[in-house]
TrEMBL record:
Keywords: Acyltransferase, Transferase. This is tRNA (Adenosine(37)-N6)-threonylcarbamoyltransferase complex dimerization subunit type 1 TsaB. NCBIfam families: T6A_YeaZ. The keyword Mitochondrion does not apply. SUPFAM superfamilies: Actin-like ATPase domain. It is an enzyme of class 2 (transferase).
Amino acid sequence: MIHTAGGEGSVALADTEMASAIVATEVLPGRSSSERLVPTVRRLMASSGWLLRELAAVVVVYGPGSFTGVRVGVSAAKGLSEAGGVPLIALSRLALLAAAVNGGEQMVHAVLDAGRGEFYYGEYMGKRCVREILAGAEDLRTAASGGLVVVCELKVAEALRELRPKLVDEPLAGDALPFAVERVVSGRFDDAAALDANYLRRTDAEIFAKPTAPRATR
């Protein structure tokens, strides 16, 4: 399992037949994911005596979050999936955040900082995603006015304090295990060739790119 969409990256190996399902895990501090991700995966697998082709799936948290981190994680996961000939599972960072709390029968609103005064917002009922959008502050306050609001960034908690959000730790790669198991059992995998990052908005390059002048018709 690979998660490089947040402030820190992390990887985890899991075996549901073991007493402790998480066999190995490691955090990649700061922005070191791009250099350390694949070597760390290889080292953890070698130390556990695992071969890539033996995996039930490669799991990646494919956003939203840091554009660079998301791209690094998705690229690595697709490469490992194709190299080992094993299925790929992509999971939302908002889904992992929503699952960090027990919402019971109420709606859970997962919120992440998106910069520029905007937020990544996910509305969840249990593990079922109702919607995920990029929202401004006022729209978010309206959308998340009922139910449980969960955040993992102090900046977001302070910005939404009137909603009384629950502040939790940033989910790590190992927190993707329950979702991954469910997807493997049901046989719901993603197409590695077609998978794109879950940015929820355009990259800076796309936002600030000069529009292409239309070609003159003949």
